[in-house]
Design brief:
Number of strands of chain B: 9
Structural class of chain B: mainly beta
Mean pLDDT of chain A: 94
Number of domains of chain A: 3
Number of strands of chain A: 23
Oligomer: heterodimer
Shape of chain B: globular
Strand order of the largest sheet of chain A: 3-2-1-7-21
Shape of chain A: globular
Number of helices of chain A: 17
Distance between the termini of chain B: 27 Å
Structural class of chain A: alpha/beta
Largest sheet of chain B: 5 strands, mixed
Radius of gyration of chain A: 22 Å
CATH superfamily of chain B: 2Fe-2S iron-sulphur cluster binding domain, sarcosine oxidase, alpha subunit, N-terminal domain
Mean pLDDT of chain B: 93
Strand content of chain A: 15-25%
Largest interface: A-B, 56 and 47 residues
Distance between the termini of chain A: 22 Å
Strand order of the largest sheet of chain B: 3-2-8-6-7
Number of helices of chain B: 1
Order of helices and strands of chain B: EEEHEEEEEE
CATH architecture of the largest domain in chain A: 3-Layer(bba) Sandwich
Number of domains of chain B: 1
Chain lengths: ~450, ~100
């Protein structure tokens, strides 16, 4: 199963890179956790017909999926990567059996996850991220019934518009404080992304036209289950208290890079203060601190689908050059239009990051909030531990088990960092990234043992 | 546990032609959807109780990140229901508390 290039993740970055690399003469193995290529943004796009209500941007992913139909590309669906080993290659699991894909070059395109939105009650059945509801719309033809959309960010508007188009409008939109005025200085550059800006304004107009109640500047979130299994959602706007009832409470405060794989390899990472997240340190081609390992797409810093597509193609050109299949002049010539596309795609990002920044109450939530969903550790106990010596992620892990459950910190690390930062009055940039160890997704000991001894042990 | 589903079918959604069993109760699923999606269409209630406090949880992130959708499928414990496609005749059990070592068939 050896390949010149192993790509992890079949979203826009991974799919674009696979096509460019295969056309350039490399054999490509494309590993992806899902049944079908597309990633989360184009989830199920190859299989869904007649769902016009999801919009034209979604349908655009179809061409990328068709591009995988190339003799040089082997797409391995349902493949969960749990280790990248410098000597052996990429190790992945399917149906309880692990496989090793040796590779001269590796491209990590694992994309983003939603930023956790912790507040009292966020663990109850009936609360989900807005992106999760969108996955259900794309994959299962299910739409949220009597749902409230809460938080901030462009995805909330998109999901609201899709729900309206599907005939299941949200009962309310509850928006946390936005900083549009504060973001205005970044607007001139944002105008290069005018079509996207206009699209966003169109979504907002559709939500207004549908008459959806819209609460702005909301804070003090709290959710409880009612006697009949529905959700009561309490929040405040200014000095006013509100209490709404819904079937489903959807939350969203943007997305963050999925960096467990890159961190588990010990690659260099840096803190992105504007996006409030850690990301691998990359050169303009997506090359990491390991020369043969590249990162493209949202996993290297949030930029969205169009940016991911350009970054994937740029990384593939650099890998073709590294493999001796493309000279530097050819690489640079083909990169020029991609860099222009990337610049256009990213022009809106600084404005969005500033306008929809994360309110501090969701970085350091009230004491009773469960922060680590797996080990059920509250914000109060984390604050207390931070004040009595657990002043870092590792110390917190050993004293309270935060991040030691099956999700391995994916759902709590941003909050644990926020709470320690608050308690010790240190910036978040000094408190991470947390050390991640393999396996980055759970596998059984039997499955690891069945792989046999490491190469160095056999010599 | 039998709260009404928090979702409804979108216009033009395919029929639920597959039959799964959840703790002895039939659950219908659409070809191509995940087990977690079928469980959410079936009920708005909890699909497991946590090992630490016994609190009820249901599928959350739907993309393999949060591990809140863990169920037992055809005897295999701790399977992420959002990462497995529904298949005819699957036998699913809610997980009440932690699995024991050796529960693997």
């Amino acid at each position: 199963m050896s390949a010149d290039l192993v790509i992890i993740g079949a979203g826009p970055a991974g799919m674009a890179a696979a096509r460019v690399a295969a056309e350039g003469g490399l054999s490509v193995t494309l590993l992806d956790e899902q049944e079908r290529a597309g990633g989360q943004i184009y989830r199920n796009v190859g299989a869904v017909a007649g769902r016009g209500w999801l919009g034209a941007d979604y349908a655009r992913g179809g061409a990328l999926v068709q591009g995988l139909d190339h003799p040089g590309i082997t797409h391995q669906p349902r493949a969960t990567v749990w280790r990248i080993d410098a000597r052996r290659g990429v190790i992945w699991s399917r149906d309880g059996q692990s496989h090793v894909s040796p590779a001269a070059h590796v491209l990590i395109a694992t994309g983003a996850q939603e930023r956790p939105v912790p507040f009292p009650g966020w663990t109850l059945p009936g609360l989900m991220p807005a992106g999760a509801a969108q996955i259900l719309m794309k994959q299962s033809g299910m739409v949220p019934d009597e749902a409230i959309l809460s938080g901030a960010g462009p995805l909330l508007y998109l999901v609201a518009a899709q729900m309206i188009a599907a005939g299941a409008p949200p009962v309310a939109l509850v928006e946390t404080p936005t900083a549009i005025t504060h973001a205005l200085p970044k607007l001139p550059r944002a105008l290069f992304g005018l079509p996207t800006l206009i699209k966003g304004l169109g979504l907002i107009a559709r939500i207004r036209a549908a008459g959806i109640p819209w609460y702005r500047g909301a804070a003090d979130f709290r959710a409880e289950t009612t006697e009949d299994g529905r959700i009561r959602f309490d929040f405040t706007t200014g000095k006013q208290s509100h209490s709404l009832t819904c079937g489903l409470l959807l939350t969203h405060l943007g997305v963050i890079p999925q960096s467990h794989l890159t961190r588990s390899m010990g690659l260099a990472h840096e803190y992105d203060a504007e996006q409030g997240a850690w990301r691998p340190t990359l050169d303009p081609w997506g090359q990491s601190s390991e020369p043969h390992v590249f990162v493209a797409g949202d996993g290297g810093g949030i930029g969205g689908a169009e940016a991911a597509r350009a970054k994937g193609a740029l990384a593939a050109l650099a890998i073709l050059h590294q493999a001796g299949k493309l000279d530097a002049a050819g690489r640079d010539r083909r990169a020029a239009p991609l860099r222009r596309a990337l610049s256009r795609a990213l022009s809106l990002r600084p404005f969005l990051d500033a306008a929809y920044s994360v309110p501090s109450a969701f970085l350091a939530p009230p004491d009773e909030t469960i922060v680590c969903r797996c080990e059920e550790v509250t914000a109060g106990s984390i604050r207390k531990a931070a004040c009595t010596g657990a002043e870092g992620l590792r110390l917190m892990r050993t004293s309270l088990r935060t991040g030691m459950g099956p999700c391995q910190g994916r759902m709590c690390e941003t909050t644990v960092i926020g709470l320690i930062a608050e308690a010790t009055d240190r910036p978040a940039s000094t408190l991470g990234p947390g050390r991640i160890r393999t396996p980055v997704k759970p596998v059984t000991l039997a499955e690891i043992a069945a792989l046999g001894p490491q190469p160095e042990e056999t010599t | 546990m039998n709260a009404a589903s928090r979702f409804r079918d979108a216009p033009g959604a395919a029929p639920r032609s597959l039959r799964l069993m959840l703790d002895g109760v039939p659950v219908l699923a659409r070809p191509g959807e995940s087990v977690a999606a079928a469980l959410l269409a079936h009920s708005g209630g909890a699909t497991r109780q946590t090992p630490v406090t016994g609190a009820g949880r249901a599928p959350y992130c739907m993309m393999g990140v949060c591990f809140d959708c863990l169920v037992t499928i055809d005897g295999h414990p701790n399977v992420q229901a959002c990462m497995v496609s529904a298949r005819e005749g699957m036998v699913i059990q809610r997980q009440i508390g932690a699995r024991r070592l050796g529960d693997q068939p």
